[in-house]
Amino acid sequence: MKKLIFISAVFLFASCNEAIELKDSKSIKKNIEKTEEKISYENPRIIGGASFGIFFQTLYKLGDFNKMLAFTSSESVEKHGKKRVMEFYKTELDFGYNIEKGAISEKIEGDTVTLSYNANIMATNKVIRVNVVIENDSAKIVLPDNLRDFPS
Predict the structure, then answer these.
(1) pTM score
(2) By the 8 A CB rule, do 140 and 73 touch?
(3) 135: alpha, beta or left, given left = phi > 0 and alpha = psi -120 to 50?
(4) Tens of each residue's pLDDT in the chain, 152 residues
(5) How many domains does the structure of the chain reveal?
(6) CATH number at residue 112
(7) Distance from C-alpha of 122 to C-alpha of 104, rounded to nearest angstrom
(8) Is residue 35 a part of any domain in this protein?
């Protein structure tokens, strides 16, 4: 009889534990869905917890060139052509070096925001600048006339 009670108790505790875990995982999923917010791309100073320069560099490091093109200003795409900009991103751009997490300064001139970052390029500390405009509620990169000057 003692064995039967002991076995019943073990099964009871085991089944309660699984039910609690299942309930907890459902409530966690609900909480994630409730708290998950749509990322806003209209503020170049902070996009998903980072500044736009960091966001754009992450796209480069991931090789997501289509998304990089989507976050390039229409003026730049019209000036250089979609094919040329894509070729530049894929084969010529060298944007894989370390830059600090946040812009050290910003300068607003008309519609253009210039974000400045401390960068470490080949063991040399430099300041790089990224020009950004807001188009259709999204921050977008403005490429210079000479693409090889990006980022300046």
Answers:
(1) 0.66
(2) yes
(3) beta
(4) 556 565 666 555 555 554 444 455 555 555 555 444 555 555 555 555 567 888 888 889 999 999 999 999 999 999 999 999 999 999 998 888 888 776 666 677 778 888 888 888 888 888 888 898 988 888 898 999 988 888 87
(5) 1
(6) 3.10.450.100
(7) 20
(8) no
